[in-house]
Predict the 3D structure of the following.
Amino acid sequence: MSGTDRSQAAGAVPDSDPGLAAVASAYQRFEPRAYLRNNYAPPRGDLSCPDGVGPWKLRCLAQTFATGEVSGCTLIDIGSGPTIYQLLSACAHFEDITMTDFLEVNRQELRLWLREEPGAFDWSVYSQHVCLIEGKGESWQEKERQLRARVKRILPIDVHQPQPLGAGGLAPLPADALVSAFCLEAVSPDLASFQRALDHITTLLRPGGHLLLIGALEESWYLAGKATLAVVPVREEEVREALVRSGYELRDLRTYTMPAHLRTGVDDVKGIFFTWAQKKVGV
């Protein structure tokens, strides 16, 4: 599937939870470059078609940040995977951005891009598209420079732990906003684990802060090289209910149906959801 994706936060788990242990074990076979080819190169990475999945995700993010309501000092990207596109609109609104992932191979992939090292994945087509839809007259080079400057750290994360970032205090908490794309459903063996993971990351967010959550609808597996990763299939209503249980007010919920020509055999995803939710004060 796509997005920030999802290799992102399985984590060390107690031996008493075989479901979470199986997820963590499966992700040791995750191949970032295969995942990026499957989801961010054509056909899914073709941004020239306005009805494609890539333009839809970028449009959801750009339009939400354009409201001016989702802003502040600190933002944490939960389960970044090997991708940066999810932060291209966010970086104009937050000065201190933390990226996170459970897998060191994904954290290394992020470092390659942030340091502009040879062999880094080329996100310039995404940066160009975001500049186009934002319409601020900014060049894609300026956009990427701003994002690189505002990502202050890349940290390990385990969304299945009550303290997902551990107790080290390496990121400023609580954050003003969270972004998470294709993470929670992709590292949870069942809906109960999905709900607990959402509860855990919510502790990182200040009351009144905002969560932008993107994920797969009705997906049960996806490929990342030799790895076949299980996904808990979620429906729109289940996402809505989980957010309410975790203490959010839903500000926006949009869905996208994956067209036949983008069902390429790398997963069984039926669609995508985008949610903008605000943590209630007192939660």
Remarks:
- The first helix runs from residue 18 to 26.
